[in-house]
Amino acid sequence: MNNLVNILYIIAFSMFILGLSGLTGPKTAVRGNWIAAAGMGIAVIATLIEIRDTYAINWILIVAGLAIGVILGVPPAKRTKMTAMPQLVALFNGVGGGTVALIAWTEFIETAGFSEFKHGEEPTIHIVIGSLFAAIIGSVSFWGSLIAFLKLQELLNKNVEKAFVKNAKIFQVANIVLLLVALAACVFIGINATPGEGSSQWWIVLVLIAAGIMGLFVVLPIGGADMPVVISLLNALTGLSAAAAGLALNNTAMIVAGMIVGASGSILTNLMATAMNRSIPAIVFGSFGGGGGAAAAGPAGEQGTVKATSAADAAIQMAYASQVIVVPGYGLAVAQAQHAVKDMASILEEKGVEVKYAIHPVAGRMPGHMNVLLAEADVEYDAMKEMDDINGEFSRTDVTLVIGANDVTNPAARNDPSSPIHGMPILNVDQSRSVIVLKRGMASGYAGIDNPLFTAPGTSMLFGDAKKSVGLVIEELKAL
C-alpha cells in the first residue's frame, strides 16, 4: 500500500509540474489547469489511502468538507468576470493561507503543545518549527490577502486607506514589534515542547493573532500600483506555509505542492518587482499610491491642454497608418472591450495596417491580466509584445491607441525625478507620432499620480466607455 501511495504522489507531482508548464501560454493554459487539478485530485486520494489505516477517519466530515468546498468555490469561479479575477485570486489564496494556519493550530492542540506526539513519537525540531512557521506565514497570508481583496474590490474606505499610506512608517515599526512577539511566543512553545509538558493553547493563539495583525498592517499601507506584486508575494507565502505544514504532518504532497507554489510565486514576484524597477522590500516598506479613485487631474496641465478627438478622426488616423500599437489597461478590462478591439484590429489589418499589442508586466491588477483578456478575444499570442520587445517600436509607430492604461504609460516615470514612480520602466508610448487615449475622464490611475501624457502635444483623448468608443471607431472604419 505504501508503494501505491508513493506512485500516486509521483504521478501527482509530475502533473503539477506539467500543468504549471502549460500556463506559459494562453493556448495551453486551460489544459494546464485541468492537468494540475487532476494531479491535486490524485494527491488527495493518495493521502486518504495513506491515513486510512492510521487514523479513525470520519468519512461524513470529509465528504461534507468536499461538498462545502465545491459549493463555495465553483460558483464564484464560474461567474466572476475577468475584471474581478484578481480579487478572486487574492481571496482563494487567502483561504489557503488560513487553512494552513488552522492546521498548525489543530496540530498544537492535538499534541498538547507539541509535547504528546502521536504513536509515541518524540517531538522533532522539524515538526515544531514547521508547524510554527506555518502558523505565522499562513496567518499573515490569510489576513493580508483579505485586505488585498478589499482593496481591489474597492470596499475599503478611501480615507482609511490614505491614513495607512500616510502613516506607513508607524505601521512598519508596529510590524517589527508584532513579529518579535510572535517569535517570542514560538520560542516559548519550542522550549516547552518536551514529552509530558504541555503548553497552554493561548500561546499558539498569541502567535496567530500577532501574525494576523501583522498581515493587516503589512498590506494596508501598500499603494494600489503595487497590488499585483503583493498578490504574487502573498501567493508565494501561502505556498511556503503549506510546505512547512507538510513537514510537520509528514505529508509529501503538501511539501512538494507548497514548494512548487512558493518557488514559482517567488520567481514571479521578483520578475514583477524588477519590471517596476523596485525591490520587494521597497514595495513592502515604501509603497506609493493610495489606490484607485484618487483625485482627478484637471483638464489642463502644466505641459499643455487636453485635446479631445472624435471616433471619426481616430478612425482616419489609424486607417492611413502603417503601424498601430494597442496598449491595453485596466480600463479595457472594466469595459470588456477586448472583443471590440480584436474586431477593430481585423478591419485595420484588412486595410494593410500592421497591428501589435504592447503588454506591460504589471498592466491590470494581476500578472498576465491583459494577456488573458486578449487571448479570450482570440488575439494571436505572437501579436502580444512584452515591454522590452515593443519599446523600440514606438518611435516608428504612426498611432498608439492607449485603452484605459495610465501608470504604465506615464512618462513621469522616465522624465521626472520627483515623481513617486520615477525609475519604473514604462511603455514609451509618448515617442509615437500620434497617441490616442481612450478614457472615461481625466482621473488619475491606480497609483493616484497624474499622467502628463494626456496633455502632451501629440496626444488626443477619446472620452467615453472604451467598448462603446471602439465600436464607434469600427463603424467609422467600415465607412471609409
From TrEMBL:
Keywords: Cell inner membrane, Cell membrane, Membrane, NAD, NADP, Translocase, Transmembrane, Transmembrane helix. It is an enzyme of class 7 (translocase). InterPro entries: DHS-like_NAD/FAD-binding_dom, NADH_DH_b, PNTB-like. Gene3D superfamilies: TPP-binding domain. The keyword Disulfide bond does not apply. The keyword Translocase applies. It catalyses: NAD(+) + NADPH + H(+)(in) = NADH + NADP(+) + H(+)(out). It is found in: Cell inner membrane. Its main location: membrane. Signal peptide: none annotated. The chain crosses the membrane at residues 6-25, 32-49, 55-74, 86-105, 125-150, 170-191, 203-222, 229-249, 255-273. GO terms for molecular function: NADP binding; proton-translocating NAD(P)+ transhydrogenase activity. The transhydrogenation between NADH and NADP is coupled to respiration and ATP hydrolysis and functions as a proton pump across the membrane. Belongs to the PNT beta subunit family. This is NAD(P) transhydrogenase subunit beta. It comes from Williamsia limnetica. The lineage of its organism: Bacteria, Bacillati, Actinomycetota, Actinomycetes, Mycobacteriales.
